[in-house]
Design a protein that fits this description.
About 35% of the residues lie in helices and about 30% in strands. It is α+β, with helices and mostly antiparallel strands. Strand 10 and strand 11 form a beta hairpin. Helix 1 packs antiparallel against helix 3, helix 1 runs parallel beside helix 4 and helix 3 runs antiparallel to helix 4. The chain starts with a strand and ends with a helix.
């Protein structure tokens, strides 16, 4: 084992060389089997949830349009869609830096200047199954969104592992790389009551916006250190379809800020720390806000209830549909349709990938055993990589098809009859031969 260390202010790098025995590698691969099964189970459940949500969004296209200006007793209990001006008798701030104003919801997104650890491993497999490994650990100071803070992200390959973390307690070399706890957290707030025209909304059924909605309002989405430009379509954050949007960046000024010692306004950011936005120190914070303005035109989709209320619509299997959008009815339905395609197919693809990774983890002990002769291990990984991809594809497709069949008894009956007919024909032919 040997080590190399390079240090340059905001950049530190450590390189370690070591040899790992064949038996140690087999033991580590066996430990990954449980994780593989867990990934498959989680993705299976995620696929079922996703397909159920797809059906709900298709139902949204059948919502009955009604006027928000007059009461409606004709469609009580049915799924409706209506547009109008949203209003509330309450004012809303963040109880810290923002003065109360005419907002339906407000979200605060916080970034902290932090040490980030990135670890990469390159390995060369020897005859006999052992590996010579080169482990490169790099520390850099970066702005990290609090939703990504203290998270470990790993990407596994055949001969390398890349991981990123801002969790100081788990750093390989924690000396000189300590991240303090943030003194201000992400936060979101909403009013307790609101109306669209004559209809009261059930605000308790709307989830609070997340810090991702702040990034969306500013046209970027935080993914660790990578900022992705959003091209018009914004997938719903998290796994809920009742989250309140905050589509408008809040322009900070003396009129809407609460004067606070140690906090300065720099452009769209509030800055808190010992450095500056141009030259920050570890632990410094930058904060920005997004809001859902009151007295703007919106569209709601939900169930028309008694007493002029619009509440969550519950579809079969307890799937709920309750959406609130800025804009017109056609814009709302168009967004639901686009989200349906984007979010549904995105989760299908992610589930496929993680099922595949799970199957590869389950098969990895056999590949490590074959690494006793390295060429056999390489062939084994190529073979299991392809075969597990096929199996993952079959699991994903069969889960999607089976779910939709069980939701439609006619299709299910047809599928059972066809399966019975084909099976009967095969057995009959085999019996005659």
């Amino acid at each position: 084992m040997s080590n190399y260390h390079e240090e340059d202010g905001d950049f530190n790098q450590y390189v370690e060389y070591r040899e790992v025995s064949w038996f140690t590698r087999i033991k580590e691969a066996i430990q990954g089997i449980g994780l593989g099964f867990l990934l498959i189970i989680i993705c299976f459940c995620l696929l079922i949830w996703n397909e159920g949500q797809t059906i709900v969004n298709q139902v949204a296209q059948q919502a009955i349009p009604i006027s928000s200006d007059v009461a409606n007793n004709q469609h009580i209990g049915k799924l409706v869609i209506t547009s109008g001006v949203i209003s509330s008798n309450q004012t809303l701030g963040d109880n810290l830096f923002i003065q109360p104003g005419e907002y339906i919801a407000i979200a605060r997104g916080v970034d902290m200047y932090s040490w980030e650890e990135e670890q990469a491993k390159d390995a060369k497999t020897n005859v006999g199954g052992s590996q010579n490994q080169k482990i490169t650990t790099t520390y850099q100071k970066r702005w990290v969104a609090l939703e990504d803070f203290n998270k470990n992200i790993s990407v596994h390959g055949n001969t390398n592992v890349i991981s990123r973390s801002t969790k100081s307690a788990s750093f390989v070399y924690p000396q000189k790389h300590q991240n303090p706890s943030p003194t201000v957290e992400n936060a979101a707030y909403k009013v307790n009551e609101a109306k669209i025209g004559v209809f009261d909304l059930d605000m308790s059924s709307f989830a609070l916006p997340t810090s991702n909605s702040v990034n969306e309002a500013y046209g970027t989405k935080s993914t660790g250190n990578l900022q992705l430009s959003l091209q018009g379509i914004k997938p719903p954050a998290g796994f809920t379809y009742v989250e309140l949007p905050t589509p408008t960046p809040l322009q900070l000024s003396q009129q809407n800020l609460i004067p606070t010692a140690g906090v300065t306004n720099v452009g769209n950011y509030l800055y808190k720390g010992s450095g500056t936005l141009a030259s920050p120190n570890v632990g410094d914070l930058r904060m920005r806000y997004a809001v859902f303005n009151a007295n703007t035109n919106v569209t709601v989709i939900g169930k028309l209830a008694e007493n002029n209320q619009i509440v969550p619509y519950v579809h079969r299997n307890n799937h709920r549909l309750y959406r609130l959008f800025p804009g017109t009815e056609s814009q709302a339905l168009d967004r639901v349709k686009r989200e349906d395609h984007l979010f549904t197919w995105g989760l299908r693809f992610l589930s496929l990938i993680f099922i595949w990774l799970g199957l590869r983890l389950i098969a990895e002990p056999m590949n490590v055993i074959l690494d006793f002769i390295p060429i056999f291990g390489s062939i084994g990984r190529l073979t299991t990589g392809f075969s597990t991809l096929i199996v993952a594809l079959m699991i994903t497709i069969s889960t999607i098809v089976t779910y939709h069949l069980t939701q439609n008894l006619v299709y299910l009956a047809i599928a059972v009859i066809i399966t019975f007919f084909i099976t009967n024909k095969l057995f009959s032919r085999r019996y005659r031969t």
